[in-house]
Amino acid sequence: MSSAVSRSAPPRIAIVGAGISGICTAVALQRAGFTDFTVFEKAADFGGTWRDNTYPGLVCDVPSRYYQFRFAMNPEWSQLYSSGPEIKDYLVKVAREHRLHERTRFGTEVKGAEFEDGAWRVTTAGGEVERFDFVLCATGFLHHPNRPDIPGLPEFAGPVVHSARWDHSIDLAGRRIGVIGTGSTGTQLVSALAGQVPKVVMFQRTAQWILPTVNRPYSRVTKQVYRRIPLLGTAAYGFNRMIFAAFSQGLIHPGRIRSFIQWVVARNLRQVTDPELRRKLTPDYQAMCKRLVVSDRFYAAVQRPDVELVTEGIDHVTRDGVVTADGRLHELDMIVLATGFDSHAFMRPMAITGTDGRTLDQAWADGPRAFEGVMLPDFPNFFMLIGPHSPFANHPLTAVAEAQSFRIVGWLKRWRAGEFETVSPTHAATDRYNALMRAAAPSTVWTTGCQSWYLGKDGLPELWPWSPGRYEKLIRREPDPVDYRLSRVESRK
Ligand code: NAP
Q: Where would you find the membrane-spanning parts of this chain (predicted)?
């Protein structure tokens, strides 16, 4: 890297997505003096998943003091676990404080990006075409709603909504509501709807282990103290980080922590007093194999007389409700699909084409793969935030986005210093990295015999199989030059 040439022009940078990771990266760029970037956002506001998800009862299951950016610690959190709207407001505030709205094109969907003559040609849905030196995909992975193909669903007389597309114009009063799905979303929805409507029917395909918790508000005094002593916020962040690091040990190795969590969730289930209901709610797999659901309200809600748990499979839907495999019609006035997301799509259906016409679909024919979660061979100057194997189970994505932004900014600084023109990881490095993760997968809890969105086509988890701390260390270290293909400034076309 000795043939550095100083540059006269800053890099042109496109960030796709203005959610957690888009905001985080944009701020990191600004702080490093990169101001010539454009954020493309197909929706009308900041916030990503926290903008899209507005269903009743949405609460983040990671404590507020940890689910935030370290560069924008918020002393004003109203409770231990923040609600969806509070997190969305926080993200909008951070974005506005950093004047990101001035660099964001709302209502502008990126359709594709093609690497051509040493730069990226970015095309929007409106047909605009622009060239950038770098493309940073901050599109998240929980944003394409999974709408199950249940026979007869279009014939249902009442509204059918996906949890991530809640329709607030629908008056819930007096409605018998069916909730399909028992993940974090389904359990939160049932907990919130119970008692608010005449009947809630929860359709469960697979039972979930539930980790108990207690949510509590922060008093005015607590907020004042946190405002006056910012170090307290840092300490609280650090404390949560330690707890989550310990929890992650249970995810990645069998052992005492895994057994302890199993004991806690089994004990929590004991609050369900009816033996038949308890039997139905007992999963047949280990705790944490699926993403662990955290709730202080679900078991109380599901034991209410106006809540019914249905474990018979759904056969079809009629005008009047859901018919289960035993032939029973569950009469309903509204159906909620809490059926999750296509988490393996990442930035697709955006059409991304790298060098020699290689498309992202071709590169990911066997499933999403990346180098260290952020880069792809044959896709020079292309970075991903929360890309393949970056999700860390219950670990906050704010922390992952910060660490990945650090790596991306590091490369941009080297570009600015004239060290290279384009960079992409080698196939060998990427294959080696993915092989190591595959080898580590069997000791993780995610492969202990359950179905979940964590698993890819090959049945292996598409998650980082080690501790979050190990990833931070990896992504914050100096990249090893042997792992990359760099083209030099002299060869610029
Ligand atoms: P999910 O965990 O993927 O759960 C989807 C649910 O729908 C599962 O119970 C699944 O059953 C069921 N389902 C899917 N298709 C079905 C069908 N055709 N018939 C019957 N049931 C069907 O989705 P999610 O609950 O929306 O959560 C997704 C992720 O979002 C979470 O894992 C988490 O990362 C995030 N999230 C976080 C929070 C938070 O508090 N931080 C809150 C909500 C969501 P099976 O289990 O049998 O597949």
A: none
What total of structural domains would you count in the chain?
2
In the reported structure, the alpha carbon of residue 123 is separated from the centroid of ligand 1 by a whole-number distance in angstroms of 33
Say whether both 103 and 188 belong to one domain: no
Indicate the pairing of strand 422-425 with strand 484-487: antiparallel
The residue segments making up the domain with residue 165 are 153-208+290-337
The predicted model scores a pTM of: 0.95
Q: Which atom of ligand 1 is nearest to the CA of 394?
A: 34
Q: List average pLDDT for each run of 10 residues in the chain, which is 493 residues long.
A: 65 98 98 96 97 98 97 98 98 98 98 97 98 97 94 98 98 98 98 98 98 96 98 97 94 96 98 98 97 96 98 98 98 98 92 97 95 98 95 83 98 96 98 96 96 92 93 95 89 43
- From 58, 184, 203, 298, mutation site for ligand 1 pocket: most ligand atoms within 8 A of C-beta: 184
Q: Where are the beta strands (DSSP E) in 185-262?
A: 199-203, 210-211
User: In terms of domains, do 95 and 170 share one?
Assistant: no
Q: CA nearest 387: which of 358, 407, 415, 410?
A: 407
What is the distance between the alpha carbons of residues 51 and 269, in angstroms, rounded to a whole number?
A: 33
Task: Calculate ∠ Cα 330-332-334, nearest 5°.
Answer: 140
Query: Taking CB atoms and a 6 Å cutoff, what residues make up the pocket around ligand 1?
Result: 59-61, 142, 148, 163, 180-186, 203, 205-206, 291, 314, 338-341, 451, 453
Distance 206 CA to ligand 1 centre (A): 10
CATH code where residue 196 lies: 3.50.50.60
Task: Clarify whether residues 468 and 370 are in a common domain.
Answer: yes
How many residues does the structure list for the chain?
493
Paired with 353 in beta bridges are 114, 359
